[in-house]
Amino acid sequence: MTNDTSGKGPIRPDWADRNPTTRAVWRTGVGVVGSLVLVLGVVLIPYPGPGWLVVFAGLAILAAEFRWARRVLSYARSKYDAWTDWLKRQSLPVRLLVLAATGLVVLATLYLLNVFALVGGWFGVDWTWLRSPLFGPS
Predict the structure, then answer these.
(1) Domain count, the chain
(2) 134 Cβ partners below 8 Å, 6+ apart?
């Protein structure tokens, strides 16, 4: 790890510091990959599985080169931990309500992404109410 005041990311390879062009290529690559992973994680948050893990992975990739991402990662970890601690202290009805709300978000996004019409089409079901309003009539 390098000193945070050096301006060099903690895992930047030596070749990236050869000249301004390689430095820009490295930072751009880290920025693009980290941003794509972060956006994917945000999309995955309401679904069962590793949504938050993917968000933290995207932030960690960005934090390898950008100080702002290190601060956001630290802040996000603390808020995630606070949320899970709060949820653990709640009664069963409150936890079930949170689960139901999460389920509704999942169903709504699946509907908007036209998944129900797609799966219905596999079985020969072509009900208009299964079609997403975002994809128009087909």
Answers:
(1) 2
(2) 112, 113, 114
Same domain, yes or no, for 73 and 18?
A: yes
pTM: 0.62
Shared-domain flag, residues 48 and 36: yes
Where in the sequence is the domain holding 72, given as residue range(s)? 1-88
* CA pair distance 93, 100, nearest whole angstrom: 10
Q: pLDDT in tens for each of the 138 residues of the chain?
A: 333 444 555 677 778 778 888 888 888 999 999 999 999 998 888 777 788 899 999 999 999 889 999 999 999 889 989 999 999 999 999 999 999 998 898 888 888 888 898 898 898 888 888 888 887 665
